[in-house]
Batch of 2 targets.
Target 1
Amino acid sequence: MEAYLFIAPVLLTFVIFLIPSRIRYFYVLSLTLFTVAITSIPAFQVLLHPDDPAYILVTGFKSFTLTFTIDNLSAFFLLVTNFTFLTGLLYSNGYLKSYRDTKSPVQFSLHYFNYNWLHLSMLAVLMLRDGIPFLISWELMAVSSFLLILFEAEKRTTLKTAVNYLVQMHVGLVLLVIAFLLCEAKTGSMSFDALQFYFKNHANIGLFLLFFAGFAIKAGFIPFHTWLPDAHPAAPSHISGVMSGVMIKTGIYGIVRVLTHVQSDMYVIGLIILVISAISGLIGVMMAIVQHDLKKLLAYHSIENIGIIGLGIGLGMMGLGSNNPFLTFLGFSGGLLHILNHSLFKSLLFFSAGSVYKACHTRNIEELGGVIHKMPRTAALFLIGSIAICGLPPLNGFISEVLIYLGFFRGLMDGSIYQSIALLLALISLVLIGGLAIFCFTKAFSVVFLGEPRTEKSKNISETDLSMLFPQYLISIMILLIGFFPLLFIQPVMGIISQQFHINQAPAMVSITQILTKISLMGGLLVIVISAIFLLRNLLTKKRIVKTGPTWGCGYTAGTCKQQYTGTSYADNFAVLAAPILHTRKEYREIHPEELFPSKRSFRTHPFDVFHSGLNKVLDFSMLVLKKLARLQTGNIQHYILYAFIFMLIIFFLLYLKIL
Amino acid sequence: MTGLVLAILTALFFPGIILRVKSLMAGRKGPGIFQPWKNIRVLLQKGSIISNTTSYIFRFAPLVYLSTILCATILIPFSTMPSFFGFQGDFILFAYLLGLGKFFFIIGAMDTGSSFEGMGANREALYSMLVEPAFFILFGTLGMITGHSSMQDIFTLFHFTGHNEFIIGIIAIYLLIQIAMIENSRMPVDDPKTHLELTMIHEVMILDHSGFDLALIHIGTNLKFAMYGLLIANIILPSGGSFVYRIGFYMAIQILFAGVIGLLESFRARKKLMKNSQFIVTLSSIALLAFILALLLMNRMIF
């Protein structure tokens, strides 16, 4: 009976094309709610009863069977996915309204159809363990997200970006197929569960790295990230939120799933993940600082946050490798909790950035400014997201980061000297990531929302309607809930780790509970102190004169609003410091001393991604080689027969010489 | 809690001492010790002018700024006295609470739309980002030496007079003094004495704040000094001795700290703005030096 429940949503998605456009959204919403319900209920059951075995559902047709398995690791990811997809759908209705005139109903249907398919394929990815069904749903996920990015396909850049995305996803797919085939060749079966037999008898690190590379392309670890900063801005905002919030996390899911089977080399694997993550985190946030495009800035922050998640996971693996359960728990719980946290604040940020884009029709932060006066609620929501993403207390980002920090400090104390040095460097990178994130989000928030409007675009705007604000409120509530009551969320996460890696959680749980209790107490205290001072100020200054006037201009008030501090000027002192890593091209003409009356001038900066241009160089080179090789393609049938003949001759000689 | 009370007490005379030392060094008599607080009292009684450009962020920022400093100070224990809020890794929360305060302070300055305040805000963001690693490496080192990660345990188990710890202690004190100077935008980085518009960081960020809000910011800044003084005192304070003896010791250290700041400010020139980042990064490398030294002293450098 239940098996049909899992198949039904798949079939019901096709009905979207038949539904009249008036009620299409409600149909999609109820379908999504149905999907969310049937997957979340078993997921909750599995998470809340850690002693029960995993929820397994077998379905199929004759000899072809599908096995859906929900263990607590899948359950955790399922719930995160469902929440973000639901809020994304709620947000999409308002967001897509403005496209009603330009897009046909079929395009809308196709969009929602793909949205549902992305959701379903991601759920399948999280539940399927066998190689072939897993890879098929992995592929479906890539294709449906590709079509979702293409919503505004009339823009040339969107098309180019989407194709680039599709190509890179397939590079990842090839790596995964090879990894699974290797596993099949040695163990005779092709599934995640078979990996443990492979890892028992063979070197662990090689196959793991293959899997890691395949999944890292999806997750966006540097240097596999080049698709990410382009694809997120190109997609509509609810899609960016979903892609950045949960889709890239399937890469992390894959990595963690493989890690649960790894049986040796754990320390080295942990170290490798740690190094790649630290680099991803640092370069991600550094690149984010110099961006002008608000959504591109957020996209680079996804790379940064994937880095933070990876730091946690790497630390956890090092703990496993050195038999230090405390490190394992701190690392993995920080990493896993950060997955949930990042899905929340990143989707919130993308949604509120989308509201700004919808109102102002530009994503270039240099053209915005003063949005807070017209859109105070959106500004407050973006602020909540910014504080959370910077990992500042009392919001959720701090909780996961503090766990990773604690792990680093714990790891410094015991273990070899190499471990101390490695963890100290990881610690420094995490500290710098935190500081740079504050730098970046003070810039993004201030330039977009504060001050005066820099151009006409942000002048005549109004607050978005409730339908778009409501999902953002939901996310904010979750952010506050995790920030103030982290214990509610840490217990299931600890359960996952203890079950997946077979270690007793009790000793670590005691001290983590103690730490998190104190942190939530402190959060409460902070709120009390702020409100006390607020009330005191209101009480004391009630009868005082409060005048308003222009901003103090130091004797010379700015001529135009364009003279305000811009994003570029804010980022400049950092860009100068980090010039060896960040390549920014500046376009301007200097004023010559002889030029008495300077003419009109312009100033532009273009941030470059070093890896992007590196990839382009490789691609250009291979294009060059391939073009040379194209000479062989003469179109003459005799030549082709000659090629075949030469090939056979070579084979013959090789066989004759016993080389082959 | 004792820590907070003591920090507030010292904050009352701290800025006065700095001012007094500076004026004595300049050959003037200088204002009384409590003059800075008298100024704050006047500000608290004044009305205010608020810029048209600003939004709710501007009024909210000083509240958060002061509150985070208060909450961060609560976390610091006093000598070996148990602190209620302390836990393993509480200095992470300490640093991040201050980070939250800075975040609001920066966006509060940016809210005015003034390019002066933008400049200050931007520099504040950069410098506080650069100084953070030094603080964390320092506490990582102290944690490694003592084998614990809460400020309470670190300060109880770290014996300043122990012959191994002494050199680390000296580096720690040096670093904390420099961090306090940078976090408060004082001498080698910024000069609070100059004309308002010419100071580069802190003073330029509060150009538009007035009345009660400005008073809140000044209170916060004064408290921040006392807070770092408390940290320094904790490193030096012996774990034995009666309560009164330790309080006396603490007060002496705080007064000395204020005096040192006054002296540093009198005899030190402000660095060129472009050189500031280099200077701040140097602190991290000094902290790294302490870390390596700790590895050596603990005999962990065995290859």
Target 2
Amino acid sequence: MSLRSNPVASLNDDIGPNIRLELYRLQVEIRDCEKRAYDLFLQNMIKGTSHLSLGQEAIAAGFGVAMKKGDKSFCTYRGHAHTLARGVPMEAMLGELMLRDIGLMRGKGGSMHLTSVEHGVMGSYAIIGAHLPIACGSAWRAQYLGEKDVSVCFFGDGTTNIGAFHEALNFAVIWKLPVVFVCENNLYMEYTLNADVTAVPSPAGDRASAYGLPKIVIDGNDADVVYRTAMAAIEKARNGEGPSLIECLTYRHSGHSRADPGKYRPPGELERWLEKDPLKIYKQRLAEFNVDAAQVAAIEVESKRKVEVATELCKASPSAPVELLTADVYADGGWAWRN
Amino acid sequence: MAELSYRDAVIRGISQEMRRDKNVVFLGEDIGAAGGVFKATVGLFEEFGPLRVRDTPISEQAILGAAMGAAMTGLRPIAEIMFSDFIAVCFDYIANEMPKIAYMTNGQVKCPLVIRTGNGAGVRFGAQHSQSVENWTMMIPGLKVVAPSSPVDVIGLMAAAIRDNNPVIFHEHKALYATKGEVPDGEIIDTLGTAKILRAGTDCTILALALMVPRALEAAEILAREHGINAEVVDVRSLVPLDTQTILGSVAKTGRLFTVEENPRLLGWGAEIASIVADEGFWDLDGPIVRITTPHIPLPAADHLEDLALPNAARIVDKIRRVMNG
């Protein structure tokens, strides 16, 4: 590895080239996959709604790499990135957005409910704040059974103003649960500037002290920073030292959802944040650390190829059989409510 | 065989299952060290310890959310919502989360849990602590809903609910906690989705639930003794799944159907059953289906007004007698 040629960088390198390449790979693949999702919308190949994480890739990548197999992710309707970051194949994610049989839930859930239990993705929840208490419950199970997994719960800045956020934080602290709460502060709660409707400047960070937690506000566009913070919080949880609340500053490059062109943003804001694009930052970082440029280029080529393959697989996939309409309403697989 | 109160039956049902399965855990407000505000959980904290019987803050969303997260990942939690009126505070979990997770995930996730809640009137608590809200939960696909009327049913249905792999709403009736009944020794396990014919009769069928069951039975005795009407009384017990076969069978025998419902009038559980019987048992009917319910009002605290609101034996007798005698 070419790091040897840069002694200063290698001395300070606590992350190392292999993990850096993995952080970059995830960010590139999420970016390419989200862009493809957007294109497929424009082609009317994806129905319903969708909430992209363009610009927020570093958070999903940083946590995705820091989490171990068996750790649990609890996501929101903006959950494509976090689902991919746990190793879910692109075609299963895109296929669910396209509501095809190949999708993670064979089209029964759609883009807002991505779930893959085998990858530890315990659901994507579309009612704001609902999954924070649910993540507490998963963490309680681990604590009660002596299992060593950590539950990580992702949510947006708007979530910090709903009751379930506060109930969950109090709960997690009093029971010292192995859960990590990750606020992706992209400045806007749907179409409204979060600062206009929130009592404190840091929507998550400034609430932490109310629950006896340290204020942690980080650059959510720098995957190294996210990764280091995630490792520390996950280790703390795994060691039985209780929960963390982490606010990651970031920005979504697209609107809130498919229907939103983001016209409420002041001129120049998007451009300023594009300068801080997590992929741009990270590619530069790799160069600073003299990570093999050929490997970096190979990741970019391979990502594009994977997106193409996944897209074709999804397009070729049929819709799910109509029998699914009434399947799995109850745990016996059926829907019978009477005899 | 021993006489047991409905309250003690709750304790026995929970402890029977907690002894059997270490994955059964219990959480709620004041359930542990305090033994429950209705004293229906006394002794559980002492027997099973603070890690399995966990007192919570006043955080209904956190209680149900945590129960759900634990259920999804391997435990079988029992969550108490102290008064069923408080379901409104945490309705997201009951309406949007628990009943839909299996369906939305194409069966990847299951949610085996029980929500126990003190339902119903008769104890002068006023409009926000007295409602019969079983229909709030009956209307949501993916939930199961039971409301036992006797101690033995409390134990058996509690055990069945805890062993079931779905979210089950378990409505305990506040005004029944002090009532007593004979309970056999040993393990008791019942079946969800089964109604019980408590009094056989030939002239009409009376369907009742929870507190309305003893009142329907009392009315049936008066109807037989004073009016020559031999009523069959069916305890519905389980709203979802609904034992329509027992109900339709009873109507086929008697030709007349009355429901006795504590819930306010609109969209009470009896309306759904009336619709089913009208569809599938119409040619067995000798007269209109009649629903006897609480009027469509909030409940007052004053004892004489609350008594006036709920169906009682006298009102049931009067209604049935007048309808039957045309």
